[in-house]
Amino acid sequence: MTELLPARLFAPLALTAIAALGLLLWVLRNGDLCPGQRRRISDGLLSTWAVFGLALMLGVEAAVPAPLLWLGGLALSAGLGSVLYQARLQGKRSLPLSWHTPALALAVLYGIWIMTIMGPAALLAAGAGGCVFAHLIMVRAKHRLQAFNTLLPLVGIASAVGWLLLLLVQAMVASSAAQADMSHLIVPFGQMSAAILLGAITWLLPLMRKEQTRPPVIAVAVLLILGALTTGQGIIWQLSINIS
Predict the structure, then answer these.
(1) What is the pLDDT of residue 241?
(2) Fewer CB in a 10 Å sphere around the end CB: N or C, the chain?
(3) Predicted pLDDT of residue 179
(4) With helix as H, strand as E and coil as C, how does 91-113 read?
């Protein structure tokens, strides 16, 4: 991959979509949902596949391996097929979760492949992006699972902070091992820290003020967290250049 915006966006967006998809399907399977909530959350799966498709197109621009693109294409085709078929159902009916299982399995394999490229930081990126994106979709679906309004922000913010700390450790280790000057990473780390801080405050604001969580607030948190992940991906690229 080259240091271009598509290369920096590809992995964070793909991992965000996959993690959000997994979380939403888990909620659909285990959550106490009425038919209306179930249908609205199921319809929200289209958003995860849209982001996944965007990541796939960015992967083409970023020159990721062709087999990875083919795997992503299969997952996207299966996922969109299920969601679009569900859109034809009348009323509050939704497809059984077994219809989404093949696409989820392919998407998970796709994510594991990306993790082998990125390393352990990918798990934290998936946790941060997946939690905030899944929360946005659930809030837009007017869910009534109030525990998730607390659980998802806490897990997502913890993952984002863990992502930041892991990159700091990797930068320190790389600096010691290669005896390289890492001063050029100060600004990206500052930008990433600011984005995570602002994203965390925005995400937790309804919880701290004991207000109803609204989609525009979570949407801002999504942009900030994804911005932090994108900046972090650029740092990973810089570290790989310095080490090599």
Answers:
(1) 61
(2) C
(3) 63
(4) CCCCCCHHHCHHHHHHHHHHHHH
Amino acid identity at 177: A
Which CATH number characterizes residue 97's domain? 1.20.1630
Question: Which tokens in the block code for residue 23?
Answer: 């979380």
Q: Model-level pTM greater than 0.85?
A: yes
User: CA–CA separation, 197 vs 201, rounded Å?
Assistant: 6
CB atoms near residue 15 (< 10 Å)? 28
Instruction: Please tell me the number of Cα atoms within 13 Å of 223 on its side-chain side.
Output: 6
Task: At 51, list the tokens.
Answer: 């982001």
DSSP result, 144-208? --TTHHHHHHHHHHHHHHHHHHHHHHHHHHHHHHHT---GGGHHHHHHHHHHHHHHHHHHHHHHH
Using DSSP, state whether 213 is helix, strand or coil.
Answer: coil
Angle at 15 between CA 80 and CA 76, to 5 degrees: 15
**How far, in whole angstroms, is CA 222 from its chain's centroid?**
9
Give tens-digit pLDDT for 120-161: 888 999 999 999 999 999 999 888 888 899 999 999 999 999
Question: How many helices (H) and strands (E) in the chain?
Answer: 8, 0
DSSP readout, 25-51?
HHHHHHS---HHHHHHHHHHHHHHHHH
What residue type is 103 in one-letter code? A
Residue numbers of the chain with a pLDDT score lower than 70: 1-3, 177-182, 240-244
Range of the domain at 32: 5-243
Q: Which amino acid is at 183?
A: S
Largest Cα–Cα separation, the chain: 64
Report the candidate in 208, 243, 242, 202 with the shortest Cα–Cα distance to residue 225: 202
Structure tokens at 57: 């197109």
